Amino acid sequence: YFAKKGKKGFAFCSSDQQHNNNRRLILERDLSKALAQQCYDDTFELKVVYQSKHCARSHQLIGYEALMRWQHPELGEISPVEFIPLAEESGLICELSRWMIRQVCHQAVCWSQTGIDFGKIAINISALELINLELAKNIIEQISAHHARCDWIELEINESALLKTPDIAIKTMEQLTNAGVFIAIDDFGTGYSSLVHMKNLPANYIKIDQSFIHNILHSTTDQAVVHAVIAMSHALHKKVIAEGVETEQQLQFLTDHGCDAVQGYWFSKPVAAQELNTRPAMAETA
Ligand code: C2E
Ligand code: MG
Ligand code: MG
Ligand code: MG
Q1: What is the ipTM of this complex?
Q2: Start and end of every EAL domain (predicted)?
Q3: pTM
Q4: Spatial CA neighbour of 133 closest among 84, 162, 168, 100
């Protein structure tokens, strides 16, 4: 049973907590079951959706971010915000990541063979994977095993993931960038990167977290943070991308302040690859 120490001493968990615990156990079990199927057809519960990234000034497509989706047979769509942490706790994350890299490499090969210019496809890497000294080697080997190219692939590494094991993380990023893989620091501004680490960071892009973009037209604090991140990144010869851009006014503000690239619902929601293939490779130009 589950017990918890509350204000009045030990008490049984509320039914809410009990419900959450049950849900976690069920999701962990079912994610493991789904992955074990090793199934790559349309019936598979896991899917990849792609969201475009654009040059802030020209709106030209520069790449896609691959995001995972899980359609649970009984519980419906489960958000990665819920199942990625579960996969991290249960050790499934590495297998999940391998599956993702395989899907993305196959998609890149397919687009390249059809003559579709996709720029780069970005994959999110979890903090737990970054503690593995072999990570760079493994990823580079997987890319070549799937007949893809390193310069087709970008990895998004959470800012807070960097802080857990900065030395290993930086070494890994160096090996990857040397092989031609792009690196972006995701959710930037939500961790507490020291300027010492920032200075030597082998990253191509700094990705400003969407929480700073939502209210950017009205919050002078958010404006100041965005301004400072852009100035610092440029001084360190890194490009800046803003995520969560939903309106033309936000896009305008970011462009006016020198942000290099943008991503968000204003351009496109994340969609299945088939939905992208039917559209021209370039987004509508303003
Ligand atoms: P993230 O990497 O920061 O991805 C951005 C999230 O913002 C995505 O949510 C995306 O759908 C959403 N988004 C994009 N544009 C907009 C916008 O204009 N407005 C708003 N409100 N939201 C926007 P999603 O797909 O639910 O993913 C959430 C998080 O789950 C991701 O955050 C990432 O940390 C994690 N995740 C997703 N797929 C994977 C994966 O394959 N591997 C790992 N390790 N993590 C993943
Ligand atoms: Mg990301
Ligand atoms: Mg992000
Ligand atoms: Mg985020």
Answers
A1: 0.98
A2: 24-284
A3: 0.92
A4: 168
